[in-house]
Amino acid sequence: MKLQHIFKTLPLLAGMMLGAASCDYIHEDLEPCDHFLHFSYTYNMKEADAFVPEMTNQATAKQVELFIYDEAGQFLRSQTISGAELESNRIQLDLEPGTYQLLAWAGLNDTDYTWTKPAADSSIGDWQMAVKEENGQVGRELLGLFQGSLKLEIPSDGETDNTLPMVKNTNKIRLVLIDANGGTELKAEDFAISATTQNGDLDEANQPISAETITWQPYYQAVESVQSADGSVTYQAVCAELNTLRLLDDSPTSLTLRYAKEDEEPFLNVNLTDLLLLTKMESHDMEAQEYLDRQDEYVITAYLDMVGGKAHCLEIIVNDWTIRLDDVNLGREE
């Protein structure tokens, strides 16, 4: 080998040796390798990573609770990620080489939820959370709740950068009840609005634990108005918002709207998930459950005929999809 070739090769070999020896858990005189974790929320309709904006835009509970278990699922320790660390979304993990199970929940807070505080002898299967309810009812706005899990391998050498995918477990539904007859005065308290699900708790695998019915009441309900194009007629609308925990395709749900001032029976009584699934476009190449998990906000607009002091539903628009109804009860066939 020519001498000049040897001189050209030496820097390359030296760089390779230096890189190989830059971090090592075996040699005590070397710094341990860095291992990083970041969270990703692309399981939405846009398939764009919205995790940091979703978390930092919340009023409170801007943190992730990270629970670390060993390969067998025994609890090791927990870590809270918030502030600048959450905004940078690059969390350094101080872990020895081995196999771990990571469980992450973002948005947990004492106002909205209860959850397991893992102890030294607990396992990952012991983890549970539930929405705080009162007599089976929830009438407040929930902060966004996210869940994710990851089996993590920490090698004996070399740095790693790992992604923990998250899913959103809270939904918001806005209802707009418009009187098709201009000039009719509406009062927000004249309408009783509620939704029911059989999902108020989740386990570590993001599956419901019990089948108890939860009734979701509006956390916002008020009268708003809109004018005709020429400004000659004013139409009033009762606008309301409520939320639910994760919606499941194979679980019973309902949405009921009743004119409480006059009617004993609801003028709309439908299976909520069936109604929302009508908005899934044919081009969406996904199962019903995936659509329900990806879509987290819905707007339901109902046009009413209030003539005679009764509420009659003329048509419903859900996320821009028009559904014409006539005293319909939309539900699954038995």
What does it look like?
Helix content is 13%, strand content 39%. With 334 residues, it is mainly beta. A six-stranded mixed β-sheet has the order 16-17-12-20-21-22, with no helix packed on it. It has a five-stranded antiparallel β-sheet with strand order 3-2-5-9-11. The protein is elongated. The N and C termini lie far apart (84 Å). Residues 6-21 have low confidence and may be disordered.
Quickly describe the structure.
This protein has helices at residues 3-20, 51-56, 83-88, 272-277, 288-294; strands at residues 35-40, 63-70, 75-82, 91-92, 98-106, 113-115, 128-131, 137-138, 146-154, 160-165, 167-168, 170-179, 191-197, 201-203, 214-216, 220-227, 234-245, 254-259, 268-270, 297-305, 312-318, 321-324. The chain is mainly beta and 334 residues long.
List keywords for this structure.
Immunoglobulin-like, 2 domains, six-stranded mixed β-sheet, five-stranded antiparallel β-sheet, 13% helix
Radius of gyration: 27 Å
Would you tell me which CATH topology of the largest domain applies?
Answer: Immunoglobulin-like
Would you tell me the overall average pLDDT?
88
Order of helices and strands: HEHEEHEEEEEEEEEEEEEEEEHHEEE
CATH architecture type of the largest domain? Sandwich
Shape: elongated
Which CATH first-tier class of the largest domain would you pick? Mainly Beta
**What percent strand?**
35-45%
- Uncertain segments: 6-21
Give the number of DSSP strands. Answer: 22
Largest sheet: 6 strands, mixed
* Helical amount: 10-25%
Structural class: mainly beta
Number of helices: 5
Into how many domains do the coordinates divide? 2
Main β-sheet, spatial strand arrangement: 16-17-12-20-21-22
Alpha carbon gap, first and last residue: 84 Å
